[in-house]
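Example record

The entry below shows one chain as it appears in the dataset: sequence first, then structure tokens.
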Amino acid sequence: MISPQATTIEYSAAEGANVYESGPIQVRNAQIVANEDGSEGNFVAALINDTDDSHTLNIEFGEGGPTLEVRVPARTTVSPGSDEDEPILVEDLDALPGTDIETFFQSGDSQGELAYIPVLDGTLDYLAPLAP
């Protein structure tokens, strides 16, 4: 009766990480599918903008590492790595497969959120097409 309910604990049920406080852009299942030495990788995620305005999601991989800006139109989901959207190549990554990379996500007027996203490789069949 006093045990916490496991079903009320939020977690990412897939390989990637969810980022909840990045601003108006919601980040779901964020991950990197990297090459063998971790020097470059493809950013894969679902970026959801359920507002009436377009927003830019700013992403920084590691402290002082490579950065990305992804524009997400109003009332749209952009899914780098899906059938509709190509993955986004991140060069100079310096993150080996099997590790997590500290990543900062920020959009709109929010302060953003620091998250750790997994770095995977193309060993598994469904990830192979996403590897650089």
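Notes for this example: The chain has no helices and nine strands. The first strand starts at residue 17 and ends at 19.
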